[in-house]
Amino acid sequence: MKILFISSEVAPFSKTGGLGDVAGALPAALAALGHDVKVVTPRYRDVKEARRLSPTGHSLQLRFPFGEQQGPILSARLSERLEVLFLENAAFYGDRHGLYGDAFGEFGDNARRFAYLSVGALQAAQRLGFVPDIVHANDWQTGLVPVALRRGFQATALARAKSVFTIHNLAYQGLFSKHVMEDLGLPWELFTADGGLEFHDTVNLLKGGLVFADALTTVSPTYAREIQTPEQGYGLDGLLRHRAHRLTGILNGIDTHEWNPVTDPYLPARYSARELDGKDRCKRELLARFGLPWSDAPVFGIVSRLAWQKGVDLLLEALPVALQADLRFVAVGSGEAPLEDGLRALQARFPQQVAIHLGFDTALSHLVEAGSDFFLMPSRYEPCGLNQMYSLRYGTVPVVRATGGLVDTVEGGLGGNGILFEAFHKAALVAAFRRALALYADPPRLTEFRRRGMDKDFSWDASASRYVALYQSLVSG
Ligand code: ADP
Ligand code: GLC
Questions:
Q1: 362-371, pLDDT tens digit by residue?
Q2: Do 246 and 358 share a domain, yes or no?
Q3: What pLDDT shows up at residue 103?
Q4: b/e for 303-337, b at 16 or more Cβ within 10 A?
Q5: Residue of the nearest CA to atom 5 in ligand 2?
Q6: Looking at the structure, do residues 469 and 432 belong to the same domain, yes or no?
Q7: Whole domain around residue 387: which residue ranges?
């Protein structure tokens, strides 16, 4: 099959979170299964590994009511069957830092920027003579893809393509003032609650994807159920229940080459499930890098966007209690100012036990995964979550809230590989810390937990085959 995959971030070129990881790894897994894949994404100013990009000789020309937009299409060929196409546009991507916003908040022209990506991706396929069987869009930034496919390209060769829309996070919907309808040239007849983009008198780009795509997926089976409830549906649960027969949960995989403790170049020592010694060297290096004195006490780590979703506020409530025990806490993250301030204050109060690094740092994220004894994810909700899978693979026991993809990947109980807690409540998290400390105090049992996690297969193979089966069912009608 020919698959056009569209994402606002693609690792290793651009990434703010798990979407980038998935858009980097899933297309590669599909190509490895023998399919022809083109990924389309913006050419941001700060794109990494820019030297791998070369011109295609093609460019886009799009006419919107707000003005005519054009820009070249660049390419990075990653393998025989996999190419990433980058849409270059100075006004939208090239002249600024950041993917979605900056210190002042979200960019004011995001509707235009991602309309350019969504419509531009379809035009890029045309320009390159790529006639896809499947057009696969992801999250609100590409919500207009299924809309444009049905409403703008219906008279072109692309019309026969089936569309898949994946929800990585239902809480981010791309909400804009209704004037955006005219600005982008969307017909007012689409501004309806039933079968349209309207949502409480605003334009909801995510909803465009949910309404117009031929199939919907989300990134874990548990989250697929949760988003059909009012508690987790963010106002769209009714629509999702209505389309439930079109919605499947397919668990994310992880890139097992990038995340492999046996070969990881970011680590001072490497290790495996059978030969765990190197993990101790990683712990020493981690403590040293964070300026904490060496100690045999357990280390709890997080690597996270500092956002409401992630329950960092709950962690900040529970840690002053948990830190009465002899444990260390290290954090790598960036995001909302009150959470950054909270972490700074915690470090100031417990300088011998707590150390933080505010910022985005891939090398350090690998060291935290390897050097920590426990990895914390007290999420309010978690569509899938990748860090808990990285942790399991690195023999670092995940301590997670029982929600979304965390339930589908971490096994609690005596013969499990991690620690789960239910209530989003300080006492429940403090109790989870206690269970972790008890496990740490029992080294043979701890080693068993670690090995069970490391032995699990989280590679993309199984999940990519599920996407292929879905694509095939759409193509054969
Ligand atoms: P989400 O997509 O909701 O942020 P995931 O667990 O799916 O959550 O993916 C997060 C990804 O982003 C992981 O690869 C994680 O290591 C990475 N990440 C998040 N924050 C940072 C950071 N500050 N530095 C380095 N990597 C980070
Ligand atoms: C989102 C979710 C996260 C998921 C990632 C990749 O950012 O918050 O849980 O793992 O997308 O699908």
A1: 999 999 999 9
A2: no
A3: 85
A4: bbbbbbbbbbbbbbbbbeebbeeebbbbbbbbbbe
A5: 18
A6: no
A7: 277-457
